[in-house]
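seq as requested:
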Amino acid sequence: MSDTQACPKCSSPYGYPMESLMMCPECGHEWDPTNVTESGGIEALDASGNPLQDGDSVIVIKNLPVKGAPKPIKAGTKVKNIRLTEGDHNISCKVDGFGSMELKSEFVKKA
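struct tokens:
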């Protein structure tokens, strides 16, 4: 049972490998073991290489087009209280004037 790993979401000690990901049988959470830090959180870096954490404020560094919106999110827009998630778009947040959305950490810098 040396292949088990604690779940970063619910702290269950029964996480098991499934292909290249880890899976928690208790909460159903899937995670990439290479993207999880020792503290159990998800590791995300901004455009400058600074580590991001839940609750940080970030600034968008380039205009980002939004599907269905008539205008992009402008460079310099400040986004408060981010939450880190797994996947390609690893920041979940609320952007003023656009609502809830997910952003890629490579297009933001820590405020």
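The mean pLDDT is 87.
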